[in-house]
Amino acid sequence: MLVRRIARPLLAASFVYGGVDTLRNPQTRVPGARPVVDQIARAADEQLPVQVPRDVEQWVKVDAAIKVGAGSLFALGKLPRLSALVMAGSIVPTTLAGHRFWEHEDPEERFGQLSNFLKNAGLLGGLLIAAVDTEGRPSVGYRARRAARRASTATERSVEQAQKRAAKAEKRAQKQLKKAS
Length: 181
Description:
Helices cover 81% and strands 0% of the residues. The termini are far apart. It has one domain. Pfam families: DoxX.
């Protein structure tokens, strides 16, 4: 559909551009990302058997690479549902790290951060819609249930035919037995 071909690149553009910009200059994002990375690493250390890296710049670069990769795939219409889901997962920590409006006292700065926070929330909403968009085709669940019903029906027919053949073979065997006796 034409709308998807136009909307996907538009939605992906901010992710690709922001990811490339961050890969070129990750140091500008490190201070904002540090509290989120520390919180994630702390929680992961408590629940995972392995040590999670704490290099904030590395996390920022990985997030940027994810945005560029998923955004490019989404813009091209390749794996659109998966790439939209990946971008949605990527925007949450970015928003929490970069737009902490609740920490600002200056009304102008607070408004700017709140506006960006809400913009990212809107992007998240669009990505969630894109992640469940089946493009008019039935969902995987529907297709799986339909295939299972068809397989079940075909199996039942095969069993019925086999039972009929077995009954005929039994009758023939009984006739032959009567003739032989």
